[in-house]
UniProtKB/TrEMBL annotation:
Protein name according to UniProt: L-lactate dehydrogenase
Enzyme active site: H186
Top-rank lineage group of the source organism: Bacteria
Residues that span the membrane, as ranges: none
Organism: Amycolatopsis suaedae
Residues at which NAD(+) binds: G20, A21, G22, A23, V24, G25, D45, N106, V129, T130, N131
Amino acid sequence: MGQLFSTHSSSRGAKIAVVGAGAVGATIAYACQIHGVAHTIALYDTNAAKVRAQVLDLRHGSMFAPPMTIVGGTDIAVCADADVVVIAAGAKQKPGQSRMALAEANVALCRAVVPRLLRVAPDAILLPVTNPVDVVTQAILTLTGLPAHRVVGSGTVLDSSRLRMLISERAGVGAPSVRAYIAGEHGDSAVALWSGASIGSVPVTGWTTDGVPVFTPEVRAGIADSVTNAAYEVIKGKGATNYAVGLAVAYIIGAIVGDQRLILPVSTLVPDFHGISGVCMSLPRLVDRAGAGAPVAVPLADEELAQLRLSADRIRAACGELGL
């Protein structure tokens, strides 16, 4: 897999703006700082004391990270001319609460903030992280009229990392040796795409230990369930997920500003995928400096496609309730 956050020559002059200086937004900025993803990181938040504290805390570690400028404030102008704007502000998911329950409040926040962001950063790629991320991504597209490739929801990139971790632990290999994706909703109807999953060049479904299949249907179902419920477990234990999502979003940002042309399961409008269209959901796509491309062809079992259609229906229904 190579270096995860390799520095591309075009990324060093990039500016990243993060809207929301809470646990998720600040951790995204921290991950970007550690890995030298950009030249400038800007934090925007309406809480003056918090955003100042977060910026100071990040700056205090400057000697231990690649050189960059870190700024922040309560004036949205701090986001001016950003190449990528991460939207991480919004209501937090509470223990036992589904991501979809956050839809109304967080879509309303986007209606208020996104037009102002585009006035100061008109050419930015928008990267919503706020949940429910598929609904929020669709709301931003509807609100702005931007082309789909410029609104790139974080989608199931983190879910796919969780899936790869669990597969790697079961198989006894390093996670970078695993290729596997979660698709559909970043939420309860997410779909594990086992048909295209592999360890090295070996299909996951064909992986054996001493001639005995490791990933039986029961094992695969258990892993998929663990992925779907992972956030609930973390939120129950510590109140929020932030470290893994921070790394995942920094990885997406690196793919964009570094023009890395990675295949990532990000969320944006589906033009037509096996009859699914007109809804934002995660599918493996090429991610580069232009943003997110069209879904790539991936192997799909009939059952997986049926589950993806149900996932799309769930997202579409939530969007419909909000008039999107």
